[in-house]
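FORM 12-B: Structure-to-Sequence Request
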């Protein structure tokens, strides 16, 4: 490397260092704020709780209620209510453009008798004119348990829904409220929909 190249590199490096110092000087307060706002990371020794009793909560601190014990039976009932709600939304949402695919996707959640009824009454009757659009959208608002029999293996839930009907024959979508009763039966370890009645 020639002497001239070394001098040019030295000058460039010096200019860059002076610029860097100047930039740091101009942004000194911003840089300090970055470091001041960094989260504090506690070591394992600092994380240990004091051995004294917790006593009363500080003033203004939220008071947490004691945990509520939930039995496996109550958990199962809650899961079935959620399942009924999800089924009602999917069962009540369809359109002529998707070839009523939602009913076919729900087949695994239905008893064979329920699937036979859906296939014969909803899918076949809906396979009419595909040029005319018609669709329904359903949103479950609340679910109420009507009955539950773990020994007998059946349950019934009432799902309150908001539905929206749209199609080529509608100027504006029509919104209305409708309830659906979902009857469930236990098949082995699984609960399946045995019947669904719009009211």
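FORM 12-B RESPONSE
SEQUENCE OUT:
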């Amino acid at each position: 490397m020639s002497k001239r190249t070394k001098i040019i590199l030295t000058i460039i490096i010096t200019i860059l260092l002076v610029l860097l110092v100047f930039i740091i000087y101009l942004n000194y307060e911003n840089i300090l704020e970055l470091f001041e706002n960094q989260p504090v990371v506690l070591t394992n020794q600092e994380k240990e709780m004091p051995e004294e009793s917790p006593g009363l909560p500080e003033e203004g601190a939220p008071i947490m209620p004691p945990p509520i014990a939930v039995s496996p039976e109550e958990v199962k009932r809650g899961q079935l209510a959620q399942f009924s709600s999800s089924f009602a939304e999917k069962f009540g949402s369809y359109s002529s453009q998707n070839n009523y695919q939602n009913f076919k996707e729900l087949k695994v959640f239905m008893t064979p008798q329920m699937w036979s009824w859906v296939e014969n009454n909803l899918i076949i009757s809906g396979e009419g004119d595909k040029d005319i659009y018609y669709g329904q959208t359903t949103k479950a608002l609340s679910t109420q348990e009507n009955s539950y029999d773990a020994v007998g293996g059946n349950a019934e839930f009432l799902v309150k829904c908001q539905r929206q009907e749209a199609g080529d024959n509608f100027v504006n979508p029509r919104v209305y409220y409708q309830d659906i009763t979902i009857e469930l039966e236990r098949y082995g370890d699984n609960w399946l929909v045995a019947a669904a009645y719009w009211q």
